Amino acid sequence: MTVQNETAQTGVVLTDSAAAKAKALLDQEGRNDMALRIEVQPGGCAGLRYQLFFDDRTLDGDVVTEFSGVKLAVDRMSVPYMQGATIDFVDSIEKQGFTIDNPNATGSCACGDSFN
Fold this sequence. Notes:
alpha/beta, three-stranded mixed β-sheet
């Protein structure tokens, strides 16, 4: 596993607010051995769905980039689907949570849970 600092090694950008929220969640649990992992998996009504979670595993072929002290891991099968994507954290009156803006997604389902 190679870790690049603040680069687009993974092809994904983790915004400052997303990195800060991920770091706060990890600090709250007292964990500094985990990475934020994004995966693209088959599923949902549009064909593909994102999985975003903390992971203490290192998978063969992982591409890892560090943003403000948070490691973002993308497995080698998901990298092509994630090139140019941005992960943000939104905290507003209407919505709170991590969001993914992916220029590779040509469409999504009505519920917004999956893409193609």
